[in-house]
Amino acid sequence: MGRAFVYVILGGGVAAGYAALEFVKKGVSHGELCIISDEPVAPYERPALSKGFLLPEAAARLPSFHTCVGANEERLTPKWYKEHGIELVLGTGVKSADVKRKTLLTTTGETISYKFLIVATGARALKLEEFGVSGSDAENVCYLRDIADANRLVNVIQSCPEGNAVVIGGGYIGMECAASLVINKINVTMVFPEEHCMARLFTTKIANYYEEYYKSRGVNFVKGTVLSSFDFDSTGKVTAVNLRDGSTLSVDMVVVGIGIRPNTGLFEGQLTLEKGGIKVNGMLQSSNSSVYAIGDVAAFPVKAFGETRRLEHVDSARKSAKHVVAAIMEPDKTGEFDYIPFFYSRIFTLSWQFYGDNIGEVVYFGDMSGSAFGAYWVSKGQLVGAFLEGGNKEEYEAIAKVTRLRPAIEDLTELERQGLRYAVTVSQKPAVSPPVEVRASDLLLEKPLYAWHATAGVIIAASIAAFAYFYGKKRRRW
Ligand SMILES: Cc1cc2nc3c(=O)[nH]c(=O)nc-3n(C[C@H](O)[C@H](O)[C@H](O)COP(=O)(O)OP(=O)(O)OC[C@H]3O[C@@H](n4cnc5c(N)ncnc54)[C@H](O)[C@@H]3O)c2cc1C
Questions:
Q1: Which residue's CA is minimally distant from atom 38 of ligand 1?
Q2: Enclosing domain of residue 401
Q3: So where does this one cross the membrane (predicted)?
């Protein structure tokens, strides 16, 4: 048994949904595109699982969060795929791939062949067993990666009203689940080995802000230690969490968020891997010219950083999906993927966004005892990253733009003094020719201009980059 398609997307998550929409926008013909997913539902906005899905009232449920509602685009229901002649093969895993023969073998025994394959297999949650602790199968131990996990988590939450939960891990999943558990009136203790939460992204100062807020909502933190074992009752339920520091916490439920691993297994030995993912070039094409990779599983060149990165965030899944379709269907009109990393989270009433890279010196701004503050990262004389909590739409757009522009920064004290105003003003600067120096001090005197056009952005970016390069070289800053 076999079928052949021009385009096959392997994986039916965020990236697959956004790629499908882009294929349709670019005029894919009926019967040309197939999506194969081991999940039983059409692509959906995965971030909803730790947010709206876990709310005790008016919780988000499918079909409300099918892609691409997260980017204010069309909501692609199963009917939409049908109407556009896209074959959705759901609840079906791919168990082997042969990139030389251009075929995939599914768990139902079907061979699906392709002309172009887009690998969008995302990642899986790391299990405790991979760290030498057993007990993942207990009915009150939860992970959160897909809709089945989310349904299970909701059931466990409902089974222990006002109970005690331990959240293992202080990253994205840990923080978002802890907030959702508190909203469900569960008492939460977070346990993680690092000195502070979100250790890969936050500085100690930023993390302190969130930890203090969480404490004000009743969350306890046990830091600098890890889980060593569970105690179970006679039914196999976990009753206590034993930590390596010798302490024990009684529990009604456990949520584990200790990281993810990209799903590359089908392609090991067939495609070049890097940074744990499938290595792709600027066209998102792997070491086999018929195979492309997008989303969490792809390790792609981040031009601005001059290195290959693999990101685990929804925005890069959406944007890489859009780009890969253009790269495949309109290769002559499509340039290299030029992406600035963007991460966000919404927890309780808090909301933050981060753009770029968190390397170099950190310059804080705003009121860290209030509801809005942020930080810039300056490396080798250039602004390379920006973080903002509690901003409005224009302010978030401003930090996004300023990070993309990477202006030269001479004076960190002045940058700190101007704070968010710096990003807002730089991002509103009109196109200029010839290039002018963007100094923090100049910006204080200028009236903001509100017209912003994409072309202007490109021109400014080029101007500032040219200036930054020239100025940086002159000053021997890098
Ligand atoms: C609970 C949660 C909350 C999140 N919140 C945020 C957030 O607030 N902000 C943010 O930036 N990012 C967030 N993320 C990360 C974001 O969801 C991911 O970066 C994004 O989903 C990646 O998209 P993807 O398409 O690459 O992978 P996925 O969305 O994971 O999709 C991969 C798909 O491939 C399928 N698959 C894998 N292997 C096979 C196979 N062999 N055969 C068939 N199908 C297969 C999987 O079942 C899945 O359907 C969150 C993630 C989770 C889990």
A1: 121
A2: 349-428
A3: 449-472
